[in-house]
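Troubleshooting: if your tokenizer reports a length mismatch, compare your output against this known-good record of 466 residues.
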Amino acid sequence: MRRKLSLSEILYVGEIRTLATTVCTVRGEVDEELLAAAFAAKVAEHRSLRSRVVRDGDEVFLDLLDEEELPRLAVHPAGPTDLTDQLNRPLPAGGPLVRATLFRGDGESTFVLGIDHVICDGHSATVLCNEIWSAYAGIQDGTYEAPRSAGESWPVAVDDLLAPCSDEDLAAYVKDRTERTSEHPLAVLPFTADASPQDGQPQDGQFRDGQFRDGQSQDGQLQDGQLQDRRPQDGRPQGGALMDVRRVRLTREQTDALVGFAKSVGVSVHGLVGAALLTAVRDGYGPGYGTDHRLSFVSPVDLRARLTPALGRDVLIPAASWYLDVVDVPAGVDPIELGRRITGRLRDGIERGEPARELQALPLLLANPAVLTASLVMPNVGSVAGPPAPPGLEITDMRKFAISSKWVPEAGAGALVASPMTVYGRLSIEMPYSARCFTPARMNEIHDHVLATLLSFVERAPVSAV
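Known-good structure output:
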């Protein structure tokens, strides 16, 4: 028995695969047998986690793995390059669609969960991570009970749960989308890296900014929420790692102040972060950015509550679409007004049902890839509580981002991808990138621009919010 993938799911099955990655920093002695049992329990509960992707002619299916092929927790001693290695190791073709790894350290370990986007989105990946830690605690105290109907079928594809739309309405929607993206030239960040990576191993393993340890970098110099740090500036990837992540992170006090400022000016934190990122892209484009240029801003949108029937966030399926906005970002733009404008347009687009139309019009949109051009892609996880820590453990940090298995440096330019999330009271923005496309120096510039913009808001926060 197998399940045919829908068109929107097949988007994740090409040569470029995307891994929804969740990273937890855990203080205390993790019992690897309990964690392995908890992960195995979730694999047993979700049929998609026991599946592989197979092709049959022009069609693509989910098919079950054999028992000996099922994914199991891998445990390794923490080392200087393990985390970077994870970013640069795609899931094997035809194999499991999930990978769980524990890097055991001295008093502090790192748990990395990667799920192929063909079977999940950001919300369901977060729920799965939380469920693994809840199962750990339940197995530990003897209260865990597996669901009676676990894993008996695959979830229904989102495409089949959308409200019907006529061919005439889809054609009109595509016409409007085409006009929207062709009226002005769209500025996309030019790639600045040499497409030929150096040989050798990365010099650090904590992702390039060293931010896995709370508040301090690997070399002890960088503090969260500050601009000064020690980073590669020569325009080349360190050692040769292709995929990397740059992180902007505020302290709890700065996050509280940013929220207070956002409330005082009537703009969401999402809008302020989006404005900071858009102006960073505009500045990064360079002096060629003219008055006629625009930026295309892609916002992933969760469709779960808009389906019939609605889906809970625990259902492992890619249930997100997107809204594409074309934004005027002139020199000296007021970031507060820009943030207000992009959030208002996003809200209006969702109310009009545009994210659902994007999925339904995919065959027409894919015929003209230019209408899918993105300057900035900004998923918004929002504010999350973080995974529940089992007794005896403390989960001190969680990171979330999507890692692509391949970028295309030959394209010469590409989107900035940035994922804001507030967890444990601290706002962070994860920016995954390929070192064959963007140099560390370019990502440093974007990091510093975004952080400086956010701190300028923090400085203007009402006294009661500080």
